[in-house]
Design brief:
heterodimer, A: about 280 residues, B: mainly alpha
Chain lengths: ~280, ~80
C-alpha cells in the first residue's frame, strides 16, 4: 500500500544526541478513520521531506513517517519549517479522510509499525468514538482585539461624571486639580474595564448559539505577533470553538456584527483539526 | 468574514497551538509525552521571539498548498 522501500536514514537533519535518538521511531501526525475514504494510502512529504504513510488497523489509521530522533532545535527557522510541514500533512490527511484526531507536535512512538498497530488496536474504541464525535466539525480560533480610543473619545463626551470632573479641574487650584485628575483617570479606567467585559461577553453570546463547544484561551499575546496589530490594539479575549463545517459561514457573519462596533477587530482563523478539544489518549 | 489560515497571525497561532495543544498520547512506546514536555519547552523558547514570518518563501508555498488542498472535495461528505 505504501512505499515500503523507504529507508530509516531519511531523518537526515535530526539531532544525533543519544537522548534524542529513538529505536524504530514513527512520528505521529494524526489518527484518521480510514473507512471514510476509498483511498487507503496517503502520500505526502512530511517533516524534513520524509515520506508520510498510513499505518492502518481495523478501520483506523495513523499518519506517520519513520524517524530516528525526536525533533528539537535551537534554530528558529528549522522549528518553523517543521511545524508548518506537520500542519500541511494534517491538512492533507483532513482532505482525504475528514476531521482527524491531531497529535501534538513531536509525538513519536518507538518500535516500528507493529508498535503503532498495537497502539491503535489497544485504543481502538476510544479513538473511533472520538473520531466519530468530531466528524464534520472543525476548530476555529477567534481573537477579539480592541482599540479603546474611539470609545474613550465618545465616553469622555457622554459620561456625566467625567464631564463633571473635567469641569471641576478647570476651576481648581493645582493641588486639587491633581486629585481630580486622579479621579478622572480612575473613572475612565472603570468605564474601559466595563466595556472590555461587555465586549468579551458579547463575543461569547454571539458565537455560542452556532458552535458545539467553546474554550476560553489563556489571554496573552501569542508568540509576540505584533506585525498586524496596531500598537493601540489590545487583546480582549481569545477563544477556540468547535463548530460544524456547515456553520462556518454563519459564524463568520455573526462575527461581522461585532466588528461593526467602534474600535473592535476580530481575528478568525481555521478551519483547524480539533487541537483544543481532542482528548488525550492513554491517560487514565 | 471568512476564517484565514494563511495570514501571518494565523500561522503564528497554529505554531503556538501545535506546540501546546493536540492529542497527547500516553503509552510506553511514546518517546515524547506531555508529562515530559522538554522538547516542547525548548521549541517554544526558540520561537518565542518570532516576529515577521512573511519574509520567508515557505509561506507562499504553504499558501499555494493550502489553496490546492481546499479545492479537493472532502470524500466523506
Amino acid at each position: 500500500m505504501t512505499d515500503r522501500s523507504r529507508s530509516l536514514n531519511d531523518a537526515r537533519t535530526t539531532a544525533t544526541d543519544d537522548e534524542r535518538s529513538v529505536r524504530q521511531g514513527r512520528y505521529l501526525y494524526c489518527v484518521v478513520e480510514t473507512t471514510t475514504s476509498d483511498t487507503e494510502t496517503l502520500s505526502a512529504a512530511g517533516i524534513d521531506g520524509n515520506s508520510v504513510y498510513l499505518i492502518e488497523a481495523d478501520g483506523i489509521g495513523a499518519v506517520v513517517h519513520d524517524c530516528e530522533a525526536v525533533y528539537d532545535a535551537d534554530d528558529l527557522e528549522q522549528v518553523k519549517q517543521w511545524v508548518i510541514a506537520h500542519q500541511q500533512v494534517v491538512d492533507t490527511a483532513s482532505d482525504v479522510f475528514g476531521t482527524p484526531l491531531p497529535m501534538r507536535f513531536d509525538t513519536v512512538l518507538e518500535g516500528g509499525e507493529e508498535s503503532v498497530e498495537r497502539w491503535l488496536s489497544d485504543h481502538r474504541e476510544v479513538i473511533r468514538d472520538e473520531l466519530r464525535s468530531f466528524a464534520g466539525t472543525w476548530e476555529y480560533r477567534i481573537t477579539l482585539m480592541w482599540d479603546p480610543s474611539p470609545f474613550e473619545s465618545r465616553i469622555t463626551e457622554q459620561d456625566s461624571r467625567l464631564q463633571e470632573l473635567q469641569q471641576r479641574q478647570r476651576q481648581a487650584g493645582a493641588g486639587k486639580r491633581f486629585l481630580l485628575e486622579k479621579q478622572y483617570d480612575k473613572r475612565l479606567q472603570e468605564l474601559k474595564q466595563g466595556q472590555r467585559a461587555e465586549l468579551a461577553e458579547r463575543l461569547t453570546e454571539t458565537v455560542t448559539p452556532v458552535v458545539n463547544d467553546l474554550a476560553e484561551q489563556e489571554s496573552r499575546h501569542a508568540l509576540s505577533d505584533d506585525t498586524h496589530a496596531s500598537a493601540a490594539q489590545e487583546q480582549i479575549l481569545r477563544v477556540a470553538v468547535l463548530a460544524d463545517e456547515d456553520a462556518e459561514t454563519t459564524l463568520g457573519e455573526r462575527l461581522d456584527t461585532i466588528v461593526e462596533q467602534d474600535g473592535v477587530a476580530v481575528r478568525f482563523t481555521g478551519p483547524w483539526p480539533p487541537y483544543t478539544f481532542a482528548p488525550d489518549i492513554g491517560s487514565e | 468574514m471568512e476564517p484565514t489560515k494563511n495570514e501571518t497571525h494565523a500561522i503564528v497561532e497554529f505554531i503556538d497551538v501545535l506546540l501546546r495543544e493536540g492529542v497527547v498520547v500516553q503509552a510506553d512506546v511514546v518517546v515524547t509525552v506531555a508529562d515530559v514536555p522538554l522538547v516542547g519547552i525548548s521549541l517554544r523558547a526558540a520561537i518565542a521571539g518570532m516576529t515577521v514570518m512573511t519574509d520567508y518563501g515557505m509561506f507562499e508555498d504553504w499558501d499555494a498548498a493550502h489553496r490546492h488542498g481546499e479545492a479537493v472535495p472532502n470524500p466523506d461528505r
